[in-house]
Specification:
- The chain is an alpha/beta fold.
- It is 21% helix and 23% strand.
- The chain folds into 4 domains: 3-202, Nucleotidyltransferase, domain 5; 230-298, Rossmann fold; 330-348 and 446-615, Lipoxygenase-1 (Sandwich); 366-431, BRCT domain (Rossmann fold), CATH 3.40.50.10190.
- A 6-stranded mixed sheet has the order 3-2-1-4-5-6, sandwiched between helices.
- Helix 5 (131-138) packs parallel to helix 7 and helix 6 (147-154) crosses helix 7 (164-185).
- The radius of gyration is 26 Å and the shape is globular.
- Mean pLDDT is 83; it is low at 1-11, 197-204 and 319-357.
Length: 622
């Protein structure tokens, strides 16, 4: 197969022509900083889609090969194979000046970056393309987006799954077919710029031992310390800081690196120091004691309440969503209804039944709205959801209908929509829509379509797996959007700074929370629900804009959630009511008894990421 098979009338064909280096690795585990590459294959393809080179090898990692039942690579098979350092130069030459391609590309890229770092070499890759992210844009009619599923859909033969060379050859066929589909739909490629990742700063810090007790509140005057109290320390101390922290943790204290309104006590020998912690403690009314008093109190600490035990007299209730709204200055909420909307009457929102999908005249359809002012377009998308349909934010193979508001006929995607013969309507169609005969090919069951504030239970059989929340937005070049996540406790506070994941710290130290960059308009938060500390009650996912641009300029953000990278999404929502906001709470995954739930939030604030982080107990200035 060749890219020459792309129809000649497709515009900007050069946008799909690159020198490609297709890569697949088999590894001893899933964590790049801990595990090793066991086998590697590289296939190079020219701009015309024809193969130009091929290389594969087993590698001796010098460690346990891990899940042999998955990759079949025993220690005996790997004995005598070269080390990565021995083949790094050859691999680097194949990657040089090419776009790295892989299915779930950040996984392969991160493993290669760490292997090159161990060999004291740079990974010579400046751009990468993920075929998984590309096919999320194409949205083919498949049950999932696994490599084998896409290979079957595109007619690419697969002989030996989890064999690096065969997987790379299959990937080559999937890439060619995916590029043809992207060209047919005139989709921009989700190319990711790759900064160096082998730098020591990329290595997360060792995980902090989580405190096993609930926060009992503030230290009362003359009262004792209680296990679970949140302790902050600032300034010079007679006892070394490391020893002071160790003794506090051993006594059951939760030592924090910043001060918030939930801090139980600040320890300092100089209350007039003017440090950021001291200033925050003064503004929040947090009690302050000196080191000598603190050490004396550590000698007689009261027992606390474990996280898995409900405090006496406390009813088990649904946690209020987006509690940050109560903490942050209400700079802008008029354009974004509070996420407490479904609970304003004091009742918990009812989750969407696990197997039931909403009905309505647009059930099973994907509607793209073009043109109009931002408020009008947002209202049209809300109407689509009310009618049971899914609101698309980009053109893909799953779009069944297009609504044209004022100026929509001049959208750059209209020639493609016309060529694909997708029905178009004016705004009046949403008053009483009638679906025309155009339908997409038979495809997987549609995900739940959630309105703002909508809730869905995560199915029990997959609750123990990694769970992903992906945010995507329209192509634009005016600013950068950053996805962030907070793991918060009963007080809606992080237990340590490392429980805040963002672009500069893309992974929590224990690996339970990660930020993945899937393209310039798509990012993912992935979390291991089974491994989350018991103190974590919610994972809050937000987006922030750097600069003066607002979410009103960006337009809708689509969020999807599902188990793992390649599975079909369980739920989706389009969030776009914002106008002047610069940060937006997108979604949350939270515990409800033994059940995990997902909620689409969609609440924005005019302040920046620094203020949002402080609301959750992360002081970015300290």
């Amino acid at each position: 197969m060749s890219l020459a098979h792309i129809p000649s009338h497709v515009p900007n064909l050069r946008d799909y022509a690159f020198d490609w280096a297709l890569v697949d690795v088999e590894t001893s585990g899933l964590v790049p900083r801990q595990h090793r590459v066991l086998s590697l294959a590289v296939v190079t393809i020219g701009p015309d889609g024809e193969q130009t080179g091929e290389f594969s090898t087993l590698l001796n990692p010098g460690c346990d090969p891990g899940p042999v039942h998955v990759h079949g690579l025993t220690a005996e098979r790997l004995q005598g194979a070269p080390t990565f350092e021995q083949i790094a130069g050859q691999v680097g030459a194949m990657l040089q000046d090419r776009v790295l391609v892989a299915h779930n590309a950040q996984f392969d890229y991160d493993f290669l970056a760490h292997e090159f770092a161990r060999a004291r070499m740079w990974l010579p890759v400046s751009q990468r393309l993920c075929t998984l992210a590309l096919n999320r844009r194409v949205d083919p009619p498949t049950d999932d987006l696994r490599l084998g599923t896409l290979a079957a859909h595109y007619g690419v033969p697969q002989l030996h799954a989890h064999d690096a060379l065969d997987d790379t050859r299959v990937l080559a066929g999937v890439l060619r077919a995916s590029l043809r589909e992207a060209a047919r739909l005139d989709l921009p490629l989700p190319l990711v710029t790759c900064p160096p990742r082998q730098d020591s700063q990329f290595m997360p810090k060792p995980p902090k031992t989580p405190c096993a007790f609930r926060n009992p509140g503030r230290l009362s005057p003359g009262g004792p310390l209680t296990q679970g109290m949140k302790i902050a320390i600032t300034g010079d101390t007679a006892t070394s800081r490391a020893e002071l922290v160790a003794r506090s943790v051993a006594a059951g204290m939760n030592v924090m690196s910043s001060v918030s309104r939930h801090t139980s006590v600040l320890v300092t020998n100089d209350q007039a120091s003017g440090s950021a912690k001291a200033r925050r403690a003064s503004s929040e009314g947090v009690p302050v004691i000196d080191e000598h008093t603190f050490l004396r109190l550590l000698g007689n600490v009261r027992s606390g309440t474990p996280h898995d035990q409900q405090p006496a007299g406390t009813p088990s209730t649904e946690p209020a969503p987006a509690q940050t709204a109560a903490l942050a200055p209400p700079e802008k909420t008029a354009h974004v209804p509070t996420a407490r909307g479904p609970e304003d009457d004091g009742r918990a929102p009812s989750p969407v039944p696990a197997r039931k999908r909403a009905g309505g005249p647009l059930a099973g359809r994907r509607v793209l709205v073009l043109g109009g002012t931002h408020p009008n377009a947002a209202a049209a998308r809300v109407r689509v959801v009310e009618l049971g349909g899914g609101a698309a934010i980009n053109l893909s193979a799953s779009v069944t209908d297009v609504v044209l508001l004022l100026g929509g006929d001049t959208d750059r995607r209209m020639p493609r929509i016309t060529a694909l013969e997708i029905p178009t309507y004016d705004a009046n169609w949403l008053d009483a829509p009638t679906a025309e005969s155009f339908l997409p090919a038979e495809r997987r069951q549609a995900p739940h379509v959630l309105p703002r504030g909508g809730v869905v239970d995560l199915p029990g059989e997959i609750r123990a797996s990694r769970w992903n929340v992906t945010a995507a937005w329209g192509q634009q070049t005016t600013c950068e959007i950053d996805l962030v996540a907070f793991m918060v406790d009963d007080d809606d506070q992080v237990s340590c700074d490392e429980n805040f994941v963002f672009y500069a710290a893309p992974e929590s130290p224990d690996g339970t929370l990660r930020l993945l960059t899937d393209g310039p308009t798509e990012q993912t938060i992935t979390t291991d629900l089974a491994a989350l500390p018991s103190a974590v009650r919610r994972v809050v996912i937000a987006a922030a804009i750097d600069g003066t641009v607002t979410f009103g300029d960006i337009g809708p953000i689509q969020i999807t959630t599902g188990p793992g990278n390649s599975a079909a999404p369980l739920a989706q929502a389009a969030l776009d009511a914002a106008t002047t906001e610069r940060t937006m709470l997108l979604a949350e995954i939270y515990r409800r008894g033994q059940v995990w739930r997902f909620r689409a939030v969609g609440q924005g604030f005019d302040h920046g990421l620094d203020a949002l982080a402080r609301n959750y107990g992360v002081d970015v200035e300290d």
